[in-house]
Amino acid sequence: MSKLQQHWETVFKTKDTTQVSWYQEVPSTSLELVNTYARGKDTTILDVGGGDSHLPHSLVELGYTDITVLDISKAALSLSKSKFIESSSVKYVNTDILEYQSNQTIEVWHDRAVFHFLSKDSEKLRYKQKAIEYLQDDGVLLLATFYKAGGPTMCSGLEVCRHDQESILALFAPEFEIIISFVEKHITPSDKEQVFIWNVLKKKK
Ligand SMILES: C[S@@+](CC[C@H](N)C(=O)[O-])C[C@H]1O[C@@H](n2cnc3c(N)ncnc32)[C@H](O)[C@@H]1O
Q1: The CATH number of the domain where 145 resides is what?
Q2: Is the model's pLDDT at 85 over the cut of 80?
Q3: If you average pLDDT over residues 96-102, what whole number do you get?
Q4: Ligand 1 neighbourhood includes 113 CB (under 6 angstroms)
Q5: Ligand 1 centroid vs 97 CA: distance in angstroms?
Q6: Domain that residue 125 falls in
Q7: What is the pTM of this model?
Q8: Are 145 and 166 in contact (CB under 8 A)?
Q9: Confidence of residue 1 (pLDDT cuts 50, 70, 90)
């Protein structure tokens, strides 16, 4: 098991996931963005580093039928899975996103607070290569990272690489274009403010 996987297994085995800094009772921005950019309820959606988020459950409630939750932590996926009575609309994949392999292409790729853990250029490039490989042409990448101007420098005890619109464009162009960028303030369960930047990127044909 890699050190990174060990870290996340420990987090999900020892912490109350409603008290972790990234917890959201309702992932409203994610839901709004999926609703805006999904072609229909059968859109193929990949939630990268989905953890124990409420997103897949909310998407199923809204009628989405093709959701894949990917996470490096088995414990996170078990927690998420245990909340479903019926989950035929949701698949779980336990892998590091940098090692992801699949026969399926994706229309909407969602990543909240995962990409910012990648610090090396080689890792960021590999992530982009995975998005190019698995996203359909015109597919969208909904990407939320801590913001360069004011976002935290650590998350879950790990250093993060903060971004802004320019750094995301520099990394993802020319294969992707940015449709919109906006800053969002997230209030953690311990009442601290975290500044995120969302970038919606479209894979060019
Ligand atoms: C800060 S949490 C965010 C969870 C979720 N996206 C949310 O917004 O509630 C980061 C998640 O990404 C997972 N993760 C971290 N690095 C990963 C990687 N390289 N590949 C896949 N999952 C990863 C962790 O296990 C954890 O569930």
Answers
A1: 3.40.50.150
A2: no
A3: 98
A4: yes
A5: 9
A6: 3-203
A7: 0.98
A8: no
A9: confident
